[in-house]
User: What shape does this take?
Amino acid sequence: MSYVGKNIPHDSAAGHAAGESVFLDDVPPMHGEVFVGIVGSPVARGRVQSLDLAAARNMPGVVGLYTHKDVPGSNRFGPVVHDEDLLVVDEAQFIGHPIVVIAAKSREVLAAARRAVRLEMEELDPVLSIERAITLEQFLSPLRKIERGDVDRALAAAPHSLEGVFDIGGQEHFYLESQIGIVVPGENRTFTVHSSTQHTSEVQALVAEVLGVPFNHVNCICKRMGGGFGGKETQAAQPAMLAALAAYHLNRPARFAYSKDDDMRFTGKRHPFKVFWRAGFDGDGSILAADFKLYSDGGCSTDLSMAVMERALLHADNAYFIPNFRATGRVCKTNLPSNTAFRGFGGPQGVAAIENLIEDVAVAAKIDALDVRQSNVYRAGHDETPYRQRVGNNTLPELFAKLRLDCSYDARRREIDRYNAHSRSHIKGLSLTAVKFGISFTRKALNQGNALVNIYTDGSVVVSTGATEMGQGVNTRLRQIAADELGVTYERVIVTATSTEKNNNTSPTAASSGTDLNGFAVIDACQTLRERLSEVARRLFAEHDPSGGDVATPLNDEPCGILFSQGSVSRSGSAGPGIAFTKLVQRAYEDRVDLGARGFYFTPDIGFDKETGEGSPFYYFTNGVACSEVLIDRFTGELRVSRVDLLMDIGESINPGIDRGQITGAFVQGMGWVTAEELKYSDKGVLLSYSPTTYKIPNISDLPDVFNVALLPNDACVQSIKRSKAVGEPPLLLGFSVFAAVKDALRSLAGQRVELALPATHERIALAIARIAVSNQPVATSASR
Amino acid sequence: MIESDGVSDAVPSSQLKDHLTIFVNGKRHMVRGLDAFRPLTDWLRYDLHLTGTKVVCAEGDCGSCTVMIGRGVDGRIAYAPVCGCIQYLLQLDGAHVVTIEGLKYAGGLNPVQQAFVECHGAQCGFCTPGFVVAVHSLLEPSSEAIDACAVKRSLTGNLCRCTGYEPILNAVEGVDRAAVQSVDALFPPETILEEMTAAAREGVLIAAGGRSFFKPVTIRQAVEFRAGNPGCAIIAGGTDLGVQMNKGMRTPMSILSTAALPDWQWLDVSNDAITFAGGVTLSVVQDVLREEIAECAEFLEWFGSPQIRNAGTLAGNLANASPIGDMLPPLMVLDAEIILTGATCERAVSINDFYTGYRQTVMRNDELITGVRVPRPAEGDVFRLYKVSKRKDLDISTFSAAVWMQMCGGQIIDCRLAYGGVGPTVVRLRKTEALLRGRPLDDETLDELQETVLSEITPISDVRGSDSYRNLLAVNVLRRLALEMASGDAGSSKPV
Ligand SMILES: Cc1cc2nc3c(=O)[nH]c(=O)nc-3n(C[C@H](O)[C@H](O)[C@H](O)COP(=O)(O)OP(=O)(O)OC[C@H]3O[C@@H](n4cnc5c(N)ncnc54)[C@H](O)[C@@H]3O)c2cc1C
Ligand code: FES
Ligand code: FES
Assistant: This one.
C-alpha cells in the first residue's frame, strides 16, 4: 500500500475549515509586544526636505521612531544584488519607500502616529514606464540573449513576415494574507523571526544583515502562509526587517503587518513587459524565424528581475521549434516598488509573447491558429530548444492532438464561424494554446534541498524541510512520501513548521520545485533511517528466530531484505508476522542507534550559461494545453469565458486532488491576469487599483460555464520524484488561451489581425471593436470623440 | 477628517441605555464606551480571540470576514451572512453574531467543513472560514434543490485566490445536506431571543472620549438629534459609512443609528407602486421585486454581493448620493418618490428632483429618508437596466443605465433615460428623451441622436474606465436595446 498517488486531503484542511489554523496575525500579542509601521515616501521619486517627528514622538504609546540612521547593520539589501535601501537615505525610489519606522503600543496609536509624522519631499522627475526607461536607457541589468541560427537572414528570406509590439500588463499577487512578520528578541542578540515567507533562509539572512548580527543569531520560522504566489519569495523580508529593527532597539517583540491597501500599494508585482517581435513564415504556417526584444519593468531595484527575465527568454519558444530564433531581454529601472516573483516567474510573459505572435501569424497566413501550432510543435527531429536543451519526454504533439479531438475543436470552430457570421449582438472566439514549462531554478545553486527526519521512541515521525506551506499542499505530499519511505501510516508522520534552525541554507519554495527538491531530500533521510533500522531488525529477527530465512540477502530493492510497510516491519520472503515499527524503534533506541537523519538532494544533469544563453537549465518539462471559448458583447465589450478544456501532463500525480486544485487555481489566476486584472496608476505613479474594490481578481461567477480538466497518463518521467511532474506554475500559463480566444473573436470581426494589449479588459475589447467598426464602414458608429 | 459635535440636550438620557448588548455564539456581551465605535472584526479577533474570522480588505470586498448576524424578527431570529469588517459594534445592539467558531457541531466539523476537507475546498485556508459561513447559511435545512447557478450567486461575495473556485463548488455539492443543522438548532432562540429583542428595541446613548452614539426609538428623537448635531453621521447598514470609517476617510464624532426606529422594516405592495420604509435592506428589496419588477430584482443581483445586500439599505444607497449608486438610475426612470421626514413635517420628493450636485441632495439637516415609493412599470412598457463594470459580480459600476419607454406601434410615446457613471450625479437625458418621443428606437434614430446623448453627459477617466469607453457605452446601450427590440426580445441581454 502506498500513500503516494492517493487523494489525501490537505494536511491543514480541517483546521482551515474550522477556522482554527493559526496565521501570524491570529497570534495574540506577547507581553510588551509593539506594533510597527512605516511612513513612506508620498512621491515616486524625491528627496526628504524636512522630517518632523516631534508630534509623533510625544504621542502617548509611541515607543520608538527610527530612520536609516538607526539601522545597525546594512541598510542596503536585495536577494541577489544589494541595490535597494530599506529606509530612504538620499532619494526615495517609489511611493511607499519607507522613511520612518514607528513602534507603538497599540494598533490605534500606530495609526495615529503615522498620521502625525510631518514629512516634506522635494519631488524629482520619476520614470514610470518601460518606454521612458528605454528612452533614458535606464536599465537594471545587462542584456541577456538566447539565439540560434541567423535570424536576420532568415527573416529577410522568409516568404512572409510580420512584426508587432505587444504590451503585457503586470499582476498583483493578491494573496489573501497580507505581508507580516513578528520578531522576538532573545538573549545575546539573538532573534526569532516568525514570517509569512516562501523563503525562510533569505529572511534569516536579510534580518541578520540589517541588524549586523551573524546568520546564526537569527532563526526564521514559517508555519504557513495565507497564499504566496511568489509575492512572499523575497518581499516577505521587508516586514521582517522593519519589525526586527524595532525589536533590536526596544528589546521587545515587534509585529509588522501590512494592511491590504498598503501591501498592494507598496510591494512588487508581476513584471509588466513590452515585446517587440518579428516573425518570418511560409505559406503553410511554418515559422522560419522569430525575433523577440523583451523589456520588463523591474521597478526600483533588481530583486529577482534578472532571473525573471531569463525565464521569460527561456520560455519565448514555448512549445514550438523555431529554427532561427533570437530573444533578447532588458530589465528597465523605474520608480515603482520593485517587481518580483509571481507564479510562472517570467514564463507567462515569454509564452504570451510567442502565443500572441502565432495568433497573428495564423491570421496573416489565413490558417487556423491551431494548425500553425501543431505544424511548429516540438517533435521528433525537431526537439532542440534555441538554448540547445533537448525536449525530453515530449508529450506536446500528443497533448495537442488529443485535446483537439476531445474538445471537438474542429466542429466548434465551424459552429463559431457560423455564429459570428449571423450574430449582431455577440461574437465568439476560440483558441487552443500550450505550455511547456521548464522545471528547475535557472540559478543552479538553488536546485538543492535538505530534510530532517526524526523518529521518536513511540514510533511517531517528524519531517521538516525548507519547503514552506502556502496552500499548495507541499506538506501533505512530503507526509505521503515520508510515510511510504518509512513504511508507517500517514497519521504517524507530521510535517512541522519550516525553520532555519532545523533546515539551513534552504531554497525558496518556488519554481514549482517544492516537492521535487525537498521530497527527494526526505527520501534520502528516510533511506538512511531505514538502513539503520534494517540493521536493528536483522538483529531482532535473528534473536527471535535464529533459524529463520536468510535475511542477509537483499530481496527486491529493500535494504537487507527488510520490508517496511504500514507500521510493521518484516523479512521479505518470510511469511511470518512482522514486528511493529514502534517496537523496532524502541529497540533501536535501546541499541543506541541514531533515530534522526538529514537528507540532501541536488538536481543532477543541469547547467546553463547565462552569458552564452546555452545549456540545459531544466531537469524536465511540465506540459499542457488548453482550449478556451469566449463570448463577447459587441456593444459593451463584456467578456464571458464560456468553456475551457484543459489537458495537462503532470506525470504520475502524487496527490491527484491537490494537484487538480493547483491546476484549477493556477488557470483561473492566469485567466484573471489576461482579462480583468488591470493595474492602473496615476501619472504620478500612484497605484489607483490598490484594493479589491478597484482591482478585480476572478470571482466565482467568472468560472468558465464548462470547465473540463483532464490529465494525460504519463509514467515515463523517470527522473522526477515518484515520476510526478511539478504542477504549481505551469497551468497558469494556459490562462493565456483566454486572451488568444479574445484575439480570435476580434479577428473574425475584423477579418484581419487586431492588436490588443494584455489584459483584455471589457474596455479594451469594446474600444477595439469600435475601431474595427470604424475601419470596416465609412459611416462611423464609434461614439468616442 | 474629524467632524466634531456634542450630544443634543433634547434627548432624555434617563430612558436610554449606556451600553450595547451583543450576543456572540450564544454568549451575551456588554459593550460600553469607545468600544462601541470599533469594527466587529477587531473586537472578535483581538478581544474575544475568535480569530477564525479573517480580515483581508476591511471594505466588504472579499468576504473573508463573513459572519452570520441574527436579529429578532417576528418572534424568531433571522440570520444572514454579512461582512464583519464593515459592521461596527454600535450597529449590533441586540444582534446575535455567529462566527466560524460557533458553527462547529458537537461532534466536530460540520458537514460543510467536512466537505471542504474532502473536496480540497481549502488550500491556503485564509478564505475558507468566510466560505464555510456563507455556504452553511445557504444550505440551512430546506428541501429546496439548489442548482449550481444559485450556489455561485450566493458566493459572489467571497473571493478565493488559490483554488480557482472549482474545488469549492465541488465541496458545496459534496455537503451531506441532511446533516446540516439550522443555526437555531445550534443556538436555541428560547434562550436568547427575548433578550435580543428587548435590547434591539431599547434606545441607547453612549458618550465617550468626545464621541457620541445615539440609537433613538422615535423618528422625532432621531430628527431632533440630527438637527442638533449637524456633523453627525447616520448609520443604517454601514456598507458605505463602515468603509469610509475603516479607511480613515471619515471619523464622525457623533453617530446616529436608525436601527430602532418604529416600522423601519415596513413595506407595502399595491397595484401601482411598492413602498419601502427607511430600513429595508437591499436583500429584502430584491426579494419583493422578484415578483413585482423582475428586471430590477435581476439587476440587484449585481449590486455588491449577498453579504452587502443583507446589510445595506435602499435608503442608504439613495442618501449616499453617489453618481455610481446602482439604484438611482432605475428609480429615476420609474420616477420614484423619496419620503423625507423632518422634525415638523413629512414631504415626498421625486427622486428626479432629489439630487442637486456631486453627493448633494435636497435633504435637510433635520430630515431622514423614511420611505421610498417605487411605481411599477405598466404592462408593455420597456424597462431595461444595464450595468457595466470591470468584473460582472461584486463590482462598482463603470457605467450604468436605466431606460423606460412607453411604446405604441413601434413608436416611443414617452421615455426616460438615466445614466450613472457619466458625471457628478446620475444624469437624466432629458434632451434625448424629448427627441426620442414619436420615433422608433432604431439605428437611424440613434445615428441622429448620438451627438445629443453625448452632449448630455460629462464622463471622466478614472480607475474604472476612460471617458471614451463611457461615451461609447452611453450610445451603445441604446444601440443594443434597439437591436433587442428589433429582434423582438427586449427583455434580456442574451445573445441575439
Ligand atoms: C463591497 C461593497 C460593494 C458595493 N457594491 C455596490 C454596488 O454594486 N452598487 C451600489 O450602488 N453600491 C454598492 N455599494 C455601496 C453600498 O452598499 C450602498 O450604497 C448601500 O445601499 C448603502 O446602504 P447602507 O444602509 O449600508 O448605508 P450606510 O453606510 O449605513 O449609510 C450610507 C449613507 O446614507 C446615509 N443614510 C443612511 N440611511 C439614511 C436615512 N434613512 N436617511 C438619510 N440618510 C441615510 C448615511 O448618513 C450615509 O451617509 C457597495 C459597498 C460595498 C462595501
Ligand atoms: S475583510 Fe474583506 S470583506 Fe471584510
Ligand atoms: S484557499 Fe487561499 S484564498 Fe482560498
